[in-house]
Amino acid sequence: MTSDRRVVVTGVGCLSAQGIGRHAVWDALCAGRCGLKPTTRSIGTFSVTAPLGVVPDYRWQDHFNEDELILLDPYAQYAILAAREALGDAGLLDSDHDRSRTAVILGSGAGGEHAREEAAWKFLGEGRQRCNPMLVPRTNHQASAGFVSMKFRITGPTMVIATGCASSNHAVAQAWLMIKQGLVDRAVTGGSEANLVYTNIKAFESMRVMGTDTCRPFSLGRSGMVLAEGAGVVVLETLDSALRRGAAIYAELAGVGMSADATNVVHPSAEGPAQAMAAALALADLRPADIDYINAHGTGTPVNDAEECKAIRQVFGAEADRLCVSSTKSMHGHALGAAGGIELVATLLAMRHGMVPPTANYQGPDPACDLDVVPNVARPARIRAALSNNFAFGGLNAVLALRMAA
Fold first, then answer.
1. Given this model, what pLDDT does residue 1 score?
2. Of 14, 34, 165, 324, which one is the catalytic site residue?
3. In this predicted structure, what is the pLDDT of residue 404?
4. Which of 5, 185, 280, 315 registers the highest number of CB atoms within 10 A of its CB?
5. Annotated catalytic, 114?
6. Is 141 part of the annotated catalytic residue set?
7. Domain topology for 256-403
8. Would you write out the chain's pLDDT as a tens digit for each of its 406 residues?
9. Do 7-244 and 256-403 share a fold?
10. CB neighbours of 340 closer than 8 A, spacing ≥ 6?
11. Of the listed 114, 141, 170, 334, which one is catalytic?
């Protein structure tokens, strides 16, 4: 075992409701620009309109041919695009490196929802007896990871982690552990999601957790989350490997923390997130005083935001008043299984550029969320170390701890 191996991030790729590519996403984050808009989704004779975070100006024809489209549901398309950008950013897209020692570990909460809903309507709504023969590979959760491995000829361990809104962070944690223990030398990891379909929107509406106009994390008057799509993917590798090939390093992934609330399937608890944050700090050998920024889970639901603030205070004590805590979901929405990947990219870019992205759409302080949530306007700041939080239904929590690589 080689658990003393340090793991760093050398490439990032992203597309979200704020744009396609890391530069577009970062420019929007710095400007506090919200990409959430009222959008209509239909299937057959049914339609629903809700605020959603849709990847803008996305045309599959710009990236894939028709033969590829037969196989690729949008969530797999997004994974490929983000992985390509991350590998290119890391200088590994066309370079000669050991692909058998590279892992592909991605998160997705839903898999191929577009193809699944379309097939269900054809069977049940239109009475058809046959469907696309590629329906199974299109809808499988593992399709995103499998197609990324094939597209970039990566032959190491390849898998998908499906833990709802914590999927991406769990995937990154698994990749980190595999590199730390010497199973692989690098990983393409993060997550993708594209489930802005009629049935999914109606399902979340029925839970009464959807925002009525937009997403206002930690704000007085917040009404709920806004569903979104997209992908966030990073390249992890050992510090020795990065230094050897002269790669630019975003930050060190210094630790991970995971826990379960073990209380309620939908009602969050402060104890589970607090346990995960404390575990990430301990594994990274970081103190509360070392953290300058937390990219919060911050969904915009009344209960979740209050419980997360409570958890941060439990872990950070008096240091909590010094922290910058923002939710970029206020701008790109809640991309479910891709949320952690997109937010990890946002956190890494914040560290590189010395700028904390804001919590947009903020209307005023809520006494239950009494932290510095960087309301509405980005803020210059030196970020020595940061946490990125993601929590899922079922009480599943995953936290990533990052620090600037010395």
1. 36
2. 165
3. 95
4. 280
5. no
6. no
7. Peroxisomal Thiolase; Chain A, domain 1 (3.40.47)
8. 346 899 999 999 999 999 999 999 999 999 999 999 999 999 999 999 999 999 999 999 999 999 998 899 999 999 999 999 999 999 999 888 899 999 999 999 999 999 999 989 988 888 998 888 888 988 998 999 999 999 999 999 999 999 999 999 999 999 999 999 999 999 999 999 999 999 999 999 999 999 999 999 999 999 999 999 999 999 999 999 999 999 999 999 999 999 999 998 888 899 999 999 999 999 999 999 999 999 999 999 999 999 999 999 999 999 999 999 999 999 999 999 999 999 999 999 999 999 999 999 999 999 999 999 999 999 999 999 999 999 998 999 999 999 998 7
9. yes
10. 107, 165, 166, 167, 168, 169, 170, 171, 172, 190, 191, 232, 388, 390, 398, 400
11. 334
Pairing of strands 7-16, 251-260: antiparallel
Considering 114, 141, 297, 332, which one is annotated as catalytic?
297
Measure the CA–CA gap between 283 and 176, rounded to whole angstroms. 12
Structure tokens belonging to residue 129: 């007896």
**What per-residue string of b and e applies to 178-198 under the rule 16 or more CB within 10 Å gives b?**
bbbeebbbbbbbbbbbbbbbb
Please give the structure tokens belonging to residue 352.
């590189």
Nearest to 276 by CA among 319, 311, 309: 311
Please report, for the chain, the start and end positions of each structural domain, with discontinuous segments joined by +: 7-244, 256-403
> Per the structure block, which two tokens stand in for 80?
């490929």
How far, in Å, CA of 268 to CA of 393, rounded? Answer: 8
Q: How far apart are CA 310 and CA 314, in angstroms?
A: 6
CATH number among 2.60.40.10, 3.40.47.10, 3.40.640.10, 3.40.630.30, domain 7-244: 3.40.47.10
Please say if 165 is a catalytic residue. Answer: yes
HSE at residue 368, side-chain half, CA atoms within 13 A, is 16
Type and span of the H or E element at 158: strand 158-161
Dist. CA 75–CA 73, nearest whole Å: 6
